[in-house]
Amino acid sequence: ISFGAILMNFLPVLLIIGFWIFIMRQMQGGAGGGAKGAMSFGKSRAKLQGEDQVKVTFADVAGCDEAKEEVGELVDF
C-alpha cells in the first residue's frame, strides 16, 4: 500500500474535520461573540414601537386608493 493510497483514504475525513472546526470558530463569533454567530440567523432584532412612535400613515403611502381603504378598515377593526 502506497502513501498516496493512505492519503486518499484519510483526505475526506480530514476535510470534514477541518470544515467542522471552521464552523465551530464561526459560531463563536470571534472576539466578543454577539449576535453574528452562525446560529443567530433565526433571531429577530426587531423593536416594538409604541402608538406615539408611528411615523407612516396611509396618506404617506402611494397606491390604489381602494386597497388602502380596505387595509384601513382592517386596521380599524
UniProtKB/TrEMBL annotation:
<protein>
    <submittedName>
        <fullName>ATP-dependent metalloprotease</fullName>
    </submittedName>
</protein>
<dbReference type="GO" id="GO:0046872">
    <property type="term" value="F:metal ion binding"/>
</dbReference>
<keyword id="KW-0479">Metal-binding</keyword>
<keyword id="KW-0378">Hydrolase</keyword>
<keyword id="KW-0472">Membrane</keyword>
<keyword id="KW-0482">Metalloprotease</keyword>
<keyword id="KW-0645">Protease</keyword>
<dbReference type="GO" id="GO:0005524">
    <property type="term" value="F:ATP binding"/>
</dbReference>
<dbReference type="GO" id="GO:0006508">
    <property type="term" value="P:proteolysis"/>
</dbReference>
<dbReference type="InterPro" id="IPR050928">
    <property type="entry name" value="ATP-dep_Zn_Metalloprotease"/>
</dbReference>
<feature type="transmembrane region" description="Helical">
    <location>
        <begin position="6"/>
        <end position="23"/>
    </location>
</feature>
<keyword id="KW-0812">Transmembrane</keyword>
<keyword id="KW-0067">ATP-binding</keyword>
<keyword id="KW-1133">Transmembrane helix</keyword>
<dbReference type="GO" id="GO:0008237">
    <property type="term" value="F:metallopeptidase activity"/>
</dbReference>
<keyword id="KW-0547">Nucleotide-binding</keyword>
<keyword id="KW-0862">Zinc</keyword>
